[in-house]
Amino acid sequence: MTKHLLMFAALACAAPAMAQDAIDPANLTATVRTMTDDWFQGRAPGTLGEERTVGYLVGRFQALGLRPGGPDGKWVQQVPLLHTRLGQPQQLELATPQGALPLRLGTDAYLSTLRADDVARVANAPLVFVGHGVSAPERKWDDFKGQDLKGKVAVFLINDPDFAAGHDEKVWGKFGGKTMTYYGRWTYKFEEAARRGAVAALIVHDAEGVGYGWNVITSPGGENYGLVRKDGSQTSLALQGWLSHDISDKLFAMAGLDLAKLRVAARSARFKPVPLEGVTLAAAIPSRHEVVTSQNVLARLPGTKRPDEVVMLGAHWDAYGQGAPDAQGRIYRAGANDDALGVAGVLEIARRMVAGPAPQRSVVFGFWTAEERGLLGSEAYAQDPVYPMDKTVANLTIDVLQTAGRARDVVLIGKGQSSMEDELLAFATRQGRTITPENLPERGLFYRADHFPFAKRGVPVLLMMSLAGASDIVEGGRAAGQAWIDDYTGRCYHQACDAWDEKWNLDGAVQDIDLLGAIATDLANSSRWPSWKPGSEFAAARGKAGK
Q: How big is the chain by its Cα radius of gyration, in Å?
């Protein structure tokens, strides 16, 4: 490492250490302040900021005495990414029966591409409204009804049909009620449009349905990343993105349709796709593209009795890099809470484990790249795991912790999925805390963090994330917890103001990190195999692990 990097590593480790079995808030602060320093340039994948971040994290792992955990005895796993960024449109408008409807990029529409084309081009492609765009044979649901989407633009509603029905349980159908399924995620909708050969896919923005406002939608600034396909193929989607709520209403009205009525119709399994007659999209947007090699950072604490069995803890190291200056002139969106604090938490758990007795099972610590771009680093690992999935006992992930102080409870994400929730209850009880199921399950947080690629492969998971519901804060109760969520998601989520603040109260984060570390340590010293609960969609993928 360079002298400069060594200086930063030394700075991060300089906080006074507490007893070996205590999570140290001073260490958390030091790590977050280091990782959000401008020198790391907002930690975007494929940049100098990544190079410095990866070097720093490897240095931290080495200083703890851990072993390399990546392939071939290395500290890193390479993750080839297609990196694109759209420029100013040469053309971007909708033709309608009532005349042209120009689209203002960033105001009316947000677009990106995952094709290696010099110009992202759509040539007068017809639009088709496909409701929520769900194809779920196991639920006897098909929004497409044989509709041919090749060469067309698919227009979706966000979330799934039960969410659209609101809070009236009498009209809930086959999608778990208020709780979002994976069919509600924007990633699924783009994947489904591509599978069906669409040339573009547009989602109608709904802040309640997606869980965040238009400012978060536009925060990537036309930039996108995708995993490079081994077969060299590309998605059919020249463009993918979002339409603002207002422009969507206007567009459907100009096509002679009532979007409000179509939202109601889309709640039914009888829904059929509705072509927007006479409406076509014409777009020509210059695109810069390159393949960059990003990296996951992996470290291992070897097990003494069953070293081939692995307990995994993880967080994502990436943030959003450089953007337009905010009101305070800050250009780096360095993700202090999302997820430098998560990285700091994993490092503290690792420090405590190294200082204690060697575990019976191996423990692997993973820092993932490109989470903010669609869980790409963890997905790349899951596609080509260093440690077999059927030997991975569980994955525990930290992604965003509340900074409002101690809490009387811990929020459970993914109720009813696996026995990891029983582990959470047992260890929370030891802390004198209760369990509160997420009160915002419609936001689909179970599908929005780096544990999810492991869940898809059958590995039981546990996510610690404070955006899923208001914590019962000791000073202020649940109102204080909700105020923290509203402030963070409304102002700072994916923005430059997600920065370290001297007003942070990390006592609650310490509770959560201590809790996750205790569960991981216990699993690493047991022969217990967590399991999926009956009815979970991930149970079938588990196979015979642990039997």
A: 23
